[in-house]
């Protein structure tokens, strides 16, 4: 990936696939809208009825599972970490959840919603990263959480 790609303000799906190790059905970020170096990243997830979890998660009232909302916000946080460090999936290093605090769900996310997520880098010290995250639909808060993540060498399972 070129420096030009790293510095541009928005990223499409092709760029995201170069930055994150996630793939279908676990890739939950469709586009990066903005990135402020060392501060924050805003991205979207377009929720469609074709998502693999809808047939089993309240089939009569399809609802995106809260844990997947947290995963999507973690992926947005992970994008900040890879952009800040320059690490890529092929490096063997991954950003893992280390903790989630103050997670709150305010309203369901359903097919047709466009979820706008923002992750703000709170702290970064060595391999530990702390983020404040929020997700909205039509400017209405749907989820928020504080996330603690750790960068680990995935090639060494004893360190995970």
Summary keywords:
single chain; 160 residues; alpha+beta; Thiol Ester Dehydrase, Chain A; 6-stranded antiparallel β-sheet; 39% strand
Describe the 3D structure:
The chain has 160 residues and is of the alpha+beta class. The chain has one domain: Hotdog Thioesterase (Thiol Ester Dehydrase, Chain A), CATH 3.10.129.10. 20% of the residues lie in helices and 39% in strands. It contains three helices and six strands; from the N terminus they run ααββαββββ. It has helices at residues 3-7, 13-19, 66-85; strands at 31-36, 40-46, 93-105, 114-125, 128-137, 140-153. The protein has a six-stranded antiparallel sheet with strand order 1-2-4-5-6-3, covered by helices on one side. The chain is globular and about 45 Å long. The two termini are 27 Å apart. Residues 1-6 have low confidence and may be disordered.
Overall geometry comes to: globular
The total tally of domains equals: 1
β-strand number: 6
Strand content: 35-45%
The average pLDDT is 92
Number of helices: 3
Poorly predicted tracts of residues: 1-6
Strand order of the largest sheet: 1-2-4-5-6-3
Percent helix: 10-25%
Task: Annotate the secondary structure layout.
Elements: H1 3-7, H2 13-19, E1 31-36, E2 40-46, H3 66-85, E3 93-105, E4 114-125, E5 128-137, E6 140-153
Antiparallel strand pairs: 1-2, 2-4, 3-6, 4-5, 5-6
In short:
This protein has 160 residues and is of the alpha+beta class. Helices cover 20% and strands 39% of the residues.
